[in-house]
Amino acid sequence: MEAARCLLDIKAVKLSPEDPFTWASGRKSPIYCDNRLTLSYPAIRTFIRQQFVSIFNEIFESADVIAGVATGGIAQGVLVAQDLGKPFVYVRPEAKSHGMKNQIEGDLKDGQSVVVIEDLVSTGKSSLLAVDALTQAGCTVKGMIAIFTYELDVAKANFEAKNIPLYTVTNYSTLIETAVKEKYISEDNLASLNQWRANPEKWSEDRM
To answer: Taking a C-beta distance cutoff of 8 angstroms, is the pair 119, 145 a contact?
Structure first.
C-alpha cells in the first residue's frame, strides 16, 4: 500500500467520483493519474525506482536492455537502467518523419532481450505498440513493468493476446482500498469507483 499512499499524497493520482474528470478521449472518469509528478519528489522517486528494480531482479534478471515508453516511461526507465547497469533505449509512439526516422532511440541490437518500463497502463494499447516496435527490431520482449494499472479487463486481454506479462508497483484495487483507509475518499464512493472499473464506457455515458 505504500506506493498507493505515495501517489495519493502528492496527488499524482486524484479520485473524484462525484465530480469526474474528462480524459483526452472525451470520456468521463472518477480517476486522473499523472505519475510524472513522482519525479519531483526525490524520496518517492527513489522508492518507485527501488520497486522497479526489485521486480526486475525477481522476474527478469537475465534481460539485456531496459526500454522506456515515450514519454512517461523514459525518465523512470533511465533511473532503473542506471541502477541496474543496463543499456537504455526508448520507444516513440511512431517513427519520426525526418532525420533517421527512428522509432526506437538508442543502441539496440538484434537478438537482445528487453524489459519495457511504463508509468501507467490503461487499455494497454499504446504500451503494446512499443512492444511491437521492439519485436519488429528483432528483440525479445520479456515483459513490462509499470508504476500503475487501472486493471481494466481490456488491458488484461490485450496483454494476454500479445503474451506479454505485466507487473506493476501498485494498481487500482490497492489504490482505492488505500484511499478509503487513509480517508482520501469515503466508503460511500466505493460502489461508484468499482462500477467504473467494471464498465468505464457505461460509467462515462451515464454522466454525459
So the answer is: no
DSSP E strands, the chain: 13-15, 21-22, 28-29, 31-33, 65-69, 88-91, 104-105, 113-121, 140-149, 166-171
Q: Judge whether residue 101 has pLDDT over 90.
A: no
Q: Are strands 13-15 and 31-33 parallel, antiparallel or unpaired?
A: antiparallel
Residue 88 dihedral angles phi and psi, to the nearest 5°: -130, 140
CB distance 161 to 184 below 8 Å? no
Q: Where are the domains of the chain?
A: 2-187
pLDDT band per the 50, 70, 90 thresholds, residue 175:
very high
90 three-state secondary structure: strand
pTM of the full predicted structure? 0.95
How many angstroms separate the CA atoms of 61 and 67, rounded?
14
What's the CATH class of domain 2-187? alpha beta
State how beta strands 28-29 and 31-33 pair. unpaired
Angle between helices 172-181 and 190-198 (to 10 degrees): 170
Per-residue pLDDT band at 67 (split at 50, 70, 90): very high
Average pLDDT value for residue range 74-103: 90
Q: Which three cell numbers stand for residue 137?
A: 527490431
- C-beta separation of 144 from 162 below 8 A: no
